Amino acid sequence: MSAPILSLSGVTKSYPRGGMLGSVFGARAPVLALDDVSLDVMAGDVVGIVGESGSGKSTLAQLAVGLTRPTAGTIRLGGEDLGLLMRDHAGPWRRRIQMAFQDSSSALNPRKSIGRCLEETLVLAGVDKAARPAEAAALLGRVGLGAEMLPRLPHELSGGQRQRVGLARALAMKPDVLIADEPVSALDVSLQAQVINLLGRLTGELGLTLLFISHDLALVRALCRRVIVMRKGRIVEEGPCLQVLESPRDDYTRLLLSAVPKGIEGRRRPPARTSNPEFPRP
Amino acid sequence: MTAPLIDIQDLRVGFRAGGRRMVEAVRGISLAVRPGEAVGIVGESGSGKSLGMLAVMRLLAGGARITGGRILFDGEDLAAAPERRMAALRGRDIAMVFQDPQSSLNPALSIGRQIVDVVVAHQAVSRGRAAEIAVDALERVGIRDASARLGAYPHEFSGGMRQRVLIAMAIACRPRLLIADEPTTALDVTVQAQIVDLIAELRRDLGLAVLFISHNLQLVAEIVDRVVVLYGGKLVEDADVFAIEDSPRHPYTRLLKACVPSLTAPPGPLFAIDGAPPRLGAMPPGCPFAPRCPRALPRCAAEMPPLTVEDGRRLACWNPQ
After folding, report:
1. Is A180 part of a structural domain of the chain?
2. Which residue from A249, B106, B188, B227 has the highest number of Cβ atoms inside 10 Å of its Cβ?
3. The model's pTM
4. ipTM of the assembly?
């Protein structure tokens, strides 16, 4: 078996409770955002990470991409320690892992055209100046947008189009691993499906490894081969996507599944749903 | 048949977009809700669903205003009512719950104070009696030990609990109509399910009429009697929820249903509707869905189909399924 492309081993991330005051009166225990998580992701894997607010799924993404450093444990990217890679080889690090964010309007500079935004990323990718405009157009094509978007500003695009631009920018670095943090949760249903299908196609075409972070189990089921269920900073269940979603072993996974809207079918056959209003806050 | 509680007739909402040009976002929507009825309003961003309901509450901001039509509530036209009258109705007879429970509560006041303020604004009761009403409302929405939590501030509650507080505030004066605008969109899935169940329960227990706005047909179908589908500021289909689910006739309704991901569909690519909703101010002359519609005829792009009524279903389509 080949080595994992992304590997977390005993990773813990804690934040001081209550921000500044918490660190001044540091008597209280820190908040454990991620609690001793170990995880191997193989090249070409499409992994869904599900959980609710506070489950640690976004912290995991930020750690993996290097936006924040772990309190304890090691993260290896392509077999190399992430901290050392970032310090000594920023270029290769950026080419190995990229991220697309949930809120496409705040992830793009509102005063820069789409073309300029992509070309700036292409500078980091080491693309020659002369080749950049054509490459930017090609990136847009890859995410299903036309070159007529290049001179436009972010606010002139729809939410779905902006989300595609965010993906195009992440792809500009030709990363091995792409982390998409709730990329469709701000989109309307009809546009969600377009972006999910695009992600599915990109993983196939580019052999991209994808970590798809979502609270929507139905979307994860449509896109991912493997799923990781997180709660309170820990992995509570993981395995092949269909197996976990069809025969979950953990109570929390079952709770998440029971909460997916069943629509009219739920009224024809009333679901067994937990309605405890004070289910512990994660 | 009972008289409608609210009867929206040919409602139009527009706003100025640069200079004197008026852009219409709600383009003639008619919709009636009977006492105790729950109606889902489904559509995407720009369909006019939120703007239309804000118009009903007369809470339009940002230069938007009602440009036509009537909003009959119990026979009284809210579109023409003076602001003082609206202030009396709002929160007492018609209440609204919004998407973001965080920004709907005042962070500097305890939740008890905020609910009591609403109650004394509408009812001739002492603050002491109003506090009892607040406790009762909080308990009804599933907040345990409510009297001890009156003094708590919004930040002490999770997002789901804050939405419960807002619902308690909305029902404290026993309104007859509750408008819920994407009340669960900002919440975690498990909490979302609880809030949907809560709204269904309140409707049953209090005999509330409910207008539930969402972009998620699957969610709406869990609790409403009837679904109204909006697209591009127009009503395209309106039918009993089972009819919408079993035999949607407008191609948009059908496609909207198909692209909701499910836990039972075979894995693989999701069904998607190509293209994007029309932009405000750039509405096609005909059916707004025509540019994305697989069943569009030449006529669809040129001429808006009239709203027809058949077997209790309203439909605006030249080539229905």
Report:
1. yes
2. B227
3. 0.88
4. 0.82
